[in-house]
Write a structure and sequence with these properties.
There is one protein chain. The chain is of the alpha/beta class. The chain is built from six helices and ten strands, in the order βββαββαβαααβαβββ. It has two domains: 118 residues, P-loop containing nucleotide triphosphate hydrolases (Rossmann fold, 3-Layer(aba) Sandwich), CATH 3.40.50.300; 72 residues, no CATH class. Bound molecules: adenosine-5'-triphosphate. The site of adenosine-5'-triphosphate has 15 residues, from helix 1. GO terms for molecular function: ATP binding; ATP hydrolysis activity.
């Protein structure tokens, strides 16, 4: 299903952070969002996943397929997120980190799903490893597996590969683009890396200085 954003305005009582964003991300497409620091990239993702500061007023609509999601609480939107900081728990194994993202259902089923998710990112050999012993690229793959595990209806990525070297970044990019296409979910990717742009028609550049007084 497609992700549709119609954002008339995102504003604090004093400033407009973003205005006039209209975009449709088709299933299987990674849409890239670029722009200078402070142009509103993270605020845009927060509006989509429902984690905006309560002081920020949202005017517009966000829909996934036929479902309007901007009126739903974060957990009901079923949107996967992957950030620069992978937030893996150090006191749990890789597999336990994934099981934690799947709280309901019989343990045997959850374990099978988690193991399959690790196969998808070629990390099944590390199921019992402690995340602290993994490389940055391996951790990024585990975080990706965890984000996809709950079968999200869309995926949001905020500079998730920026700490990796160029080689690993290219591998992660290929993995993410491949999985997004395979699962036919829409994805929004915030990045500073022009190599992340797959197609120019899938690019939004936030240029305007957003902290205009209201
Ligand atoms: N809750 C808030 N209250 C007031 N101003 C805010 C709030 N949230 C964000 N802003 C301001 O809105 C602007 C956009 O912030 P945002 O973090 O979305 O930008 P960004 O493009 O992601 O920047 P960066 O690339 O530096 O992460 C910034 O000027 C920020 O200070």
């Amino acid at each position: 299903m497609a992700l549709q954003l119609h954002i008339h305005r995102l504003a604090t009582p004093r400033h407009t952070l973003l205005a006039h964003i209209d975009l449709v991300v088709a299933p299987g497409v990674v849409h890239t969002v670029m722009g200078p620091s402070g142009s509103g990239k993270s605020s845009l993702l927060a509006a989509v996943c429902g984690t905006l500061d309560p002081a920020v007023q949202f005017e517009g609509s966000i829909t996934l397929g036929d479902t309007r999601v901007d009126t739903l609480p974060t957990q009901a939107r079923r949107i996967g997120m992957l950030f620069q900081d992978d937030l893996l728990f150090a006191h749990m194994t890789v597999l336990e980190n994934l099981l934690f993202a799947l709280p309901s259902g019989p343990r045997a089923n959850r374990k099978t799903q988690a193991q399959q998710a690790l196969v998808d990112v070629e990390m099944d050999a590390y199921a019992e490893a402690n995340p602290a012993t993994l490389s940055g690229g391996q951790r990024a793959r585990v975080a990706l597996a965890r984000a996809l595990l709950a079968q999200p209806r869309a995926l949001l990525l905020d500079e998730p590969f920026s700490k990796l070297d160029a080689n690993l970044r290219a591998r992660m990019r290929a993995l993410v683009f491949g999985l997004v296409a395979q699962r036919q979910i829409p994805a929004l990717l915030v990045t500073h890396d022009t190599a992340d742009i797959a197609h120019l028609d899938h690019l939004t550049h936030l240029t305007h200085a957003v902290t205009q007084p209201v």
